[in-house]
Amino acid sequence: MAAKNSKKSSKKGSTTTAKTKSTKKSEPVQAPVVEEADAEKIYAKRFERHLDELRWLYMELYNNSSMFAELCDNMERFFKERNQELKSMDSSRETSKDWYKQNDMLGMMFYIDNFAGNMKGVESKLDYIEQCNVNYVHLMPFLETPEGRSDGGYAVSDFRKVQENLGSMEDLESLTTACHKKGINVCMDFVMNHTSEDHEWAKRARQGDGEYMSRYFFFDNSYIPTLYEKTVPQVFPTTAPGNFTWLPDANHFVMTTFYPYQWDLNYKNPRVFNEMMYNFLYLANRGIDIVRIDAVPYIWKELNTPCRNLKQVHTIVRMMRMISEIVCPGVLLLGEVVMEPEKVVPYFGSVEKPECHMLYNVTTMATTWHSVATRDISLLKKQLDIVNSLPKDYVFLNYLRCHDDIGWGLDYDTLKMAGIEERAHKQYLNDYFQGYAGESNSRGELYNADPITGDARFCGTTASMCGIEKAGFEQNEAAMERAVRLDVMLHAYMFMQSGIPVLYSGDEVGQVNDYTYKENPNKAADSRYIHRGAMNWNLAENISKPGTVEEKLFHALSNLEKIRKAEKVFVTNADTWTIETKDRSVLSIVRAFEGEKIVGLFNFSEYDKTLYIDGEDGEFTELISGTKKRLNEISLPAYGYYYLKKNE
User: Fold this and answer.
1) Phi/psi zone of residue 73: left (φ > 0), alpha (ψ -120 to 50 degrees), beta?
2) How many other CB atoms are there within 10 angstroms of residue 254's CB atom?
3) CA nearest 123: which of 186, 188, 165, 31?
4) Is 173 left (phi over 0), alpha (psi -120 to 50) or beta?
5) CA angle, 607 as apex, 601 and 613 as ends, to 5°?
6) For 487-508, what is the HEC assignment?
7) What phi, psi does 262 have (nearest 5°)?
8) Distance CA 409, CA 404 (A)
9) What's the gap between Cα 197 and its chain centre?
10) Could you count the other beta carbons within 10 Å of the beta carbon of residue 165?
């Protein structure tokens, strides 16, 4: 059962009001109206700017001039179909290219049905989203998928149709329009790597239509699939082993990197690229601001390779970026690339030839939870130093939890030097977060556990991992205070990282694990649904009730969000670095911009600390409490944090 976490506590001081510059609520910027005649000139200029490179890359990949001509014709068609409001927004964002790099960007991700039932429901909740200080919502997959074979919405059967229970394309346009009026950007998943086996292309391919079979990877015997298997790693070795599925009715193998019902698209076929770009532009014209490209590294397949991160992937993403800049330059590309920060860098492209606008900071998220379980920030500090050394044009999305599991893809080479072995440590982390080891208060479940390798991933909400579920179940006030402090500290640390913070819906009110997924036969086998529970709006009603867990969390996060928007050091291109605290449990991040500086201190242990930090002289103002402090001797409570602004 889910813990009842609204119990009041008699202890005071867990959250206080931020004392910082007053911030007037920012109103949506009114984009200049673009007249149709001017729009055509603007389009021609954009097209001319990118034409040579786009043609060169397309011909290098496909050597098909007629298909390229078709692509260009359709790009112009989609531009003409783009409405005036979106064209005006495009022009405004072209003028202010760094609009998404400011310190007012805060994201929230959620499943539409879980959050508010359907798209109309989400539209009715925009005031709440505003109250959360959020101006960027990631709508988790909402395109049509087969029930029971959807992979959480990532097995798309129609790229032009919304799931009926969620609404319609007209509802989507209504929602994006309403969001834009409030200055809220809308993000959606674009699943490029594969389609559902129920997609029209797949149905025709299954019937033996060669034109459509060529859009996938079909083989009439096991020879070529066996060769692929020699070099291509398995994504889900326990729940979906192998990279191919035998289709008895079609008498062929088909490539299925993820699940048997998700058929990999063959981007060696220019028809696939063109049609998927038309789908992309169609969705952009519905008012989408940010397109999350799912599973980017997998897009191109080549025999005798791992079929990951091949150079042709970058060609495709670069072309996609140029197509976007020609037709809908107000749209951002967000790449889902699950690797260490320094290894995902190629997906940003270069200054001259950019690819993705933003990427996820996945490994840092996993290392954050490692730091919680070990009370040791050494590896996290090293990783943040790497991120902070990258060019400031690179924008990462930072988060504590998302819709997916946590894979323990840590820097084991570094950990090994400290005597930590990979298999044993993964076992410890999974035991810790299930509540079995390390004096843990966490609760959650394993996903895709492999008894042979000992590998497994972990599922759970932020609140449950911080101990709010356990404390609520046990009605332990002291434990609840400690769990809330850990939860808030982790969010405060995330807001200090370089990039854009993203909340997972429900985290703002401390929503815990939902075990009811086990009662649904379509979900019971997938433990990720433990943290994909429906939004509990009863908890949200408690944010105005002093002393409740929900009020404490919501109030504390609101303070942090207001500080972030008020202080210019939180722009994404600020100078950011870590400093030595001489305590393995305490992390310190410094942000500086245009003569201002803020030092963040974060205690990853359950013990009070006294710190003696060298090199940061002078007096600081603690932005939460307004008190004056010096770093040469400073006390930091258990799971506590400070935002310290250098006094002039």
Assistant:
1) alpha
2) 22
3) 186
4) alpha
5) 35
6) HHHHHHHHHHCCCEEEEECCHH
7) -115, 110
8) 14
9) 26
10) 11
Task: Tell which residue, 127, 124, 137, 31, has the closest CA to residue 85.
Answer: 31
Residues in the chain: 648
Write down the mean pLDDT value for the chain: 92
Across 303-323, average pLDDT: 97
Strand boundaries in 444-499, DSSP class E: 445-447, 457-459
Q: Render pLDDT for 233-283 as a digit per residue (tens, 0 to 9).
A: 998 887 889 999 999 999 999 999 999 999 999 999 999 999 999 999 999
Instruction: Return the SS3 of 497.
Output: coil
- Tokens 């699940």 belong to 259
Residue type, 637: P
- Residue 256 carries which DSSP code? -
Above 80 in pLDDT, residue 7? no
Q: Report phi then psi at 506, rounded to 5.
A: 105, -25
Q: DSSP string spanning 258-308?
A: S-TTEEEP-TTSHHHHHHHHHHHHHHHTTT-SEEEETTGGGS---TTS-SS
C-beta of residue 328 within 8 angstroms of C-beta of residue 376? no
- Please say whether the dihedral angle defined by the alpha carbons of residues 21, 92, 502 and 574, taken in this order, is positive or negative: negative
CA–CA separation, 580 and 637 (whole Å): 18
User: End-to-end CA distance of the chain, in Å?
Assistant: 52
Mean pLDDT of 365-392: 95
Residue 603 pLDDT greater than 80, yes or no: yes
Lowest mean pLDDT among 244-248, 344-348, 488-492, 585-589: 344-348
Amino acid letter, residue 171: D
> Which candidate, 508, 554, 559, places its Cα nearest to that of 535?
508
Helix, strand, coil percentages in the chain from 3-state DSSP, rounded to 5: 40, 15, 40
Distance CA 317, CA 335 (A): 9
The token pair that represents 600 in the structure block: 């963040």
Whether 25 shows a pLDDT value over 50: the answer reads no
The residue among 317, 334, 439, 327 whose CA lies nearest residue 396 is: 334
Q: Which phi and psi angles does 428 have, rounded to 5°?
A: -60, -45
Nearest partner of 542 among 508, 503, 509, judged by Cα: 509
Q: Quick one: average pLDDT of 453-458? A: 88
Q: What tokens were used for 111?
A: 């499943």
Instruction: Give Cβ neighbours of residue 226 (< 8 Å, ≥ 6 apart).
Output: none
Q: What one-letter code names the amino acid at 604?
A: F
* Cβ neighbour number for residue 426 with a 10 Å cutoff: 21
> Parallel, antiparallel, or unpaired: how do β-strands 620-622 and 500-504 relate?
unpaired
CA pair distance 311, 270, nearest whole angstrom: 17
